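Memo to structure team: turn this sequence into structure tokens by end of day. - J.P.
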Amino acid sequence: RSSDLPDYVRIGVAQYSGSYKDEFNLSLSSNVSDVKTRIGEIKKMDGSTYIGLALQSVNQSLFNPNAGCRIAESIPQLLLVITDGQSVDKVAGPAAVLRQRGITIYALGVGAISDSQLLQIAGSPDKKFTVSNFSELNSIKKRIVRNLDRKST
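Reply from structure team:
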């Protein structure tokens, strides 16, 4: 089994709370071990939840050619938003802008999260997931990956 992701797969990670932070962009190495190491080094941010601002920031920061975005090459672009809080700003408009660009958004709520807000982010019920707590993420991982795989091919 190869330790590299397929050529069409690129992973970028950003965090948000009261501010936005790119952890790494889409041009990072496609080696699975490198990606896992970088994800393991991320320190969770605390603070208020501004998903609308985060969606605007990720649109400008991660989904551009300088950060490794290949939307111009007709390669599917997927965004997974994981949140454990209710956004204090509006999310529908920024999410719609991303979808209009051809970016498919999945929303994963952890804990007591507004279903309607997750739906505004994802745009459709089949792209919306919820778990009770972070320890349940493993149990839903396969379902999300299957769904992402179906949508990206």
